[in-house]
Amino acid sequence: MERRRPPRLVLPRPRRRPKRDRHARTRVAFLRYSYYDIVLKFFVEHVLDADYLPLPEPTKRTVELGSRNSNDSVCAPFKHILGDYLEALELGADVLVQFAGPCRLGYYGELQESILRDMGYEFEMLNFATVTGKPLTDYIEVCKKKVNPNLSVPHGVRGMLTAFKMIECLDEAQDFYLTHAGFEAERGSFDRALAAYHAEMRAAANERDIAEAQRRGLESLRALPVRRPARPVRVGVVGEYFTAADPHSNLGLERKLLDLGVEVHRQLNMTNRNLRYNERNLRAGISDYVRYDMGPTSSMTIAAALRYAQEGFDGVVHLKSAGCTPEVDCIPVLQQVSRDTGLPILYLSYDSQTSDTGLDTRLEAFYDMLAMKKEKTI
């Protein structure tokens, strides 16, 4: 009997699926840090070509989560950041980005990663502290390894330079806001204009969009009516890199000062500390008080306070997290600056238990003292 061969099995040709790289499904989250989430969104979407995971406004739970899973001896920024990461992972983040520094926060990324992995979370940690001070190409190589293997180095470098330009624009607008919002003729007008500007900048996809958003945003802010007194109370804000610049960490200190009718200045921002920083020049200007580099923001803290004194400011508020060693070391120097120049300085230290009520009381008393002193000098 003739054996028949089994019929040949012909499989249908697989349908071609649209190409989608692994990184296109990657959800990237950053820690919360002032208005710089706008830049971080641009970086993720237009440099890394990945999905940006925005975090909602932080709540009391955010700090509680971070504090509960941190050692008591670490600074408040560590707890804020860890709480941010936990909420990001709960929302489905695949990659967490740590850029914090330049103090011991630069070492915290590894510790926070270890804590989160011990808690059972699976994720990638893109820790820029590992390439701090190196060329931009090294930053892009780390991004290729952790997020997008197809990332072009030239494209990445161009995108990061555009992100740097966005930082400068945002800081310029914030400086204008702090200088004028305390005298707004219509309550809330500056906050609304700033929010609209931020929304437009958040939608920017290239350098042209950024330039247009900047032009329109500044025009809108400058057009707002103000009722500025002839001799307003002027206050400079100095201090630790994270706490002094982040309103969630300092309980909205700048807004509180603006509500009191104060002209606010803050030299510390990412433009001045990261993009245009010159330690040698700063220390030359404070050589009567400091001979050595005391730490990440120390020279800027002292130089800014001295400049505010020389420019006739009415007072300075010094902000730091509890246990911040470099800023603790600044305090005796600031006290000497105060004695030499007569500049009043309010020292505020924050931890995870700091309350709005106590802060309001101290700020109001400080403002009343500055206002009365100013009246006597007429």
Automatic annotation (TrEMBL):
A Pfam family hit: HGD-D
Keywords from the UniProt entry: Coiled coil
Coiled coil residues, start to end: 194-221
Keyword Signal belongs to the record: no
InterPro entries: Dehydratase_Activator_Redct, FldB/FldC_alpha/beta
Residue numbers spanned by region Disordered: 1-20
UniProt protein name: 2-hydroxyglutaryl-CoA dehydratase
